[in-house]
Amino acid sequence: MSLFDFADGREGYYGDYGGTFLPEILATTVEELRLCFRKCKEDPTFWAEFVELMRTYSGRPTPVSYLENLSSKLGGARIYVKREDLNHTGSHKINNVMGQGLICKRLGKKRVIAETGAGQHGFATATMAARFGFDCKIYMGAVDVARQRPNVFWMENLGAEVIAVQDGQRTLKDAINECLRDWVTNMGDTHYVLGTACGPHPFPEMVSFFQAIIGKEARQQIIQEAGKLPDRVYACVGGGSNAIGIFQGFMDDNVELIGVEAGGHGPDSGLHASRLAYKDASVGVAQGFKTYFLQNDDGNMLETHSIAAGLDYIGINPILSDLWEKDRVRFEAATDEMVRDTLKLVMRTEGLIPALESTHAFALAVAEAPKMGKDEVILINQSGRGDKDIFTVADTIEDDHWKEFIKDKAVEYGA
Amino acid sequence: MVLEQYLRDRLQQKNLLLMTHVVCGYPSFDDNWRELEIMAEFGVDMVELQFPFSEPSADGPLFVKANQQAVADGVRPADCFEFMRKVSEHFPFKVLMMGYYNTAFKMGHETFITKLSAAGGCGYILPDLPVEEAGELHTLSKPKELAPIVLMTPTNTDARLKILGAAAEGFIYAVARKGVTGGQTEMGDDLKAFIAHCRQHTNLPIAVGFGVSQKADLDFLRGKADIAIIGTAALKAWENGGEDGLRTFFSGLLG
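Predict the joint structure of the above. Result:
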């Protein structure tokens, strides 16, 4: 099935979700982008150019690893991992970013802006901008700036300007609002590199198009490594770009697809970012598109929480909302506590350091694998690496040696 | 159409009408009322009552703060409709709802139209609702004589302006420049040409907003547009100087 065969007059809609809800001033810019993307999508040499760029610049194809130790420890399904963490800049975000860099070049624009939550998308965008010679401004919620300093450090040193957004909840959604404000002002020379498969059409389709590289590779690799298609594929879902990326590889197969959201402190806690796995979200229109949002009865957005900044978002990929309603994708949530435990387990048994975001996918797989048969195969998308989370993880596990190091550093810097 | 006829009647007496803006419940509904009394004193013709939304992505810093503070203070759409009812009963100017589409979407189109009509509103401005998505709301508006206000912008193509002109009722909201609310706008040849361009695609009165903040701007717009829209500048005057500040602002604007 193709997700992007739109019915007449319904371009950009996935069931009831998606669409384009933007101020009129952006209509021309978005139409230009839509037409440019259409041309690129229909041009096979464009995809070849993209794949070649990712091969030579980002180390693609990323491998699929078999986790033998973890599989035998859990005693159920055989567990494999798609290693998006091995991309340049450490996550799947670079796929979309380099693709949009090529689009930006074709649009003839010289400046890029981007929102970022965990900082991975901002980091990737700053890298792309340096490589392509674009001016670059990254909007990041002040709360996220505080918890993801290592990525801010790299963005700034790559030549990007990082703006700490002080409005609202000061996280990802507020960074998106600031990007929209910048874009309505500077659309003449500026392309908005939206980082996830959310926002107005054509962004969900365009981001999915580039992230599909994950699923295309993974399908071939898992057949080679495991000798069969996976029974289940797990991916974490914030905005939902790594999930739709890997899921697209298995859309027509008899493979169960599981999206794992940020359960935070659990259901009914009011401190989570689970739009579909918990019952708190409803359909709304914000940030340019229609989907399930964590909002109140008046349509004002709720506070969200996650241990993983990259999952801490009010809305969800409209394609995934539709696939969830059609029972093609199952949605579950992993709590902060499950994520902490799973990260420790994965580090010790396999020597992998998944990002806190990706660890959500591991957490569900670890919970379900023991109930599956030994002949069954699980594929987890490790969307990013966890090095960036060193401060959050060190806090969580209260590592005394780390604390001493930070204190010594503070003294060294004259604090 | 009630609103269009009202504006045409007013334009018989004045060559440039005035539309102002308040964010409901910011800093409080009492403050809003006192602002509106002053606006009425100065003969304002129309007022937009903005229903606060948590994600005001088309607004500049001052209105962003106002929206978020009002939401944090617990201002709800029901409070805004109730306030609108009092305002429309008490004041001579016409009242419009302004806000973001999710406010109307979440309560349901029919409820939104029914409540707006019952509160004495004459129309609504939803800047993040493109005309392609507004069909049902526009249809529901007709029997209630509510005007869905359409925005025209300097970046629109001719083909697009034609579509916008065909969908519009009441008046056209011409956005004077790129960007969000509250910045500066150069009142010059580009704006003059843009307004003339809008005229080619509509017979409705044209209101110009975004960066209209002083007497010189109104002088510029006279003879070119029909309505001047004062948003951020009035709130700034209120924040800086309260009632006296706002009176001084309008005296200067209209003096």
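The interface with chain A takes residues 52-58, 60, 64-65, 68, 71, 76-77, 100-103, 105-107, 127-130, 132-133, 151-157, 160, 164, 175, 178-180 of chain B (CB under 8 Å).
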